[in-house]
Amino acid sequence: MDPRKLLDTQSRPNMTTERQRESREDPLPRGGSFDLIGSQLGEPFGQKSGFSVHTNCRVCRTALLLPYLDLGDQPLANGLVSADALAVENETRYPLAVALCPECGLSQLTVAVDPKILYTHYRFSSGVSRAWLVHCQELANSVISEKGFSGFVVDIAANDGSQLNQFRSADWKLLGVEPSDVPTLMVGAHPNEVRANIPIIRQFWSQAVADQIRREHGPVDVVIAQNVFGHVADPVEFLKATKSVLAEDGQIVIEVPDVGDMIDNLAFDTIYHEHLSYWNGLALERAAEASGLRVKKLEQFPDIHGGTVRYWLEHRDGATQFERSPLVSDTVYTAFAQRVSHTIDLTSSIISGIEKTKFLAWGASAKGAVMMNAIYNRWPRATFPRAVIDQTPEKQGLLTPGVHIPVIAPPDDLSDVDVIWVLSWNWLPQIRAQAEQRGFSGKYLVTSPSPRLV
Ligand SMILES: [Zn+2]
Q1: pLDDT, tens digit, for every residue of 64-102?
Q2: If we measure between CA atoms, which residue out of 389, 386, 113, 437 comes closest to residue 275?
Q3: What's the gap in Å between 205 CA and the centre of ligand 1?
Q4: Which domains does the chain carry?
Q5: From ligand 1's centre to the CA of 7, what distance in Å?
């Protein structure tokens, strides 16, 4: 799908022609930089259940959301657990299902887990990849070539400052907004960098923070929000706050994974509780309109987070009422759900033919947890690997969420292993290289865009 088509109200989403989902194990966790402003657009969070039923579209407020994909009740995908913790209490599971707004085409989870639960569990930073830094450099160059060598840029969910750091070659004033402790934690990890000197407001993005920036620093030329929009409870309120700090000729740069990529790559394992919504161009345009903004242009980056779209927004003149357009068809989405169902069954069948003692997985990632739990929910007696290899030391010794497979460091010798399940399938080339260094000569199981042994 070319997201540009979705900016033309005459055309409708056609989710059939997308690209490869690749590049990072998981999108860089934005340091817990999710936005909590605005209402929940649903019922209050249940005291016991820990979640609320999501009832109205996060963009256009339509109440008739159409559920199309159900991955069953699942624990939090990043919630690796210790055996000791499990001995006391099993993990809580929450419904994991997606619904479509027929008005604007926004896919969104049918429930919202209480952020207090969602973002207080054990989190891991996956580090910064070379490809991501190149991408950040490209964005900075784009901004500088358009706006010149001086200006004021704010990065919402600035994380470790990687993006802002790319503006240092020019005379730009830098300001990050980031509630987590990632900025301080990362200083030691990057001794050659000067990111520590970037000022960071340690808060969630909100109207109050926007007001503070405007008051203390004046209008902002460029606001950047990468990989945070899917976490936002109320994108319209988020954008209104952003608009309020923007200079008259200012621009907002939003980057989000594209739902068309998710469908084309069958990347249903990118659906988990942290990701409240899955964006397309029409929904983004609607959210912009409702906030007094308009989409000026967009760019596609097939290799970033498996398919990212960058939207450039600017102030919009005139009324901000929606024009009614034809309903979005759910045909593509129901076909996607059928492919997901088939993939779960087929993967279960493949793994059940593998001898457990000679079966390992690689990548204790969130997407791996979603995939294994989706299979486990339907086929609890399937053969799961005896361990999951992961190079992150903090994950080793823990158990994967839900299915409870031990996470281990890469063994020195993999010559007696028959199959490695590449749970972080977007990292297949890197994992293949590392496995072969350790004497592995068996097959790799990958599930995207279809399950197979390679
Ligand atoms: Zn909607």
Answers
A1: 899 999 999 999 998 999 999 999 988 999 999 999 999
A2: 113
A3: 23
A4: 18-114 (no CATH), 126-315 (3.40.50.150), 333-453 (3.40.50.720)
A5: 15
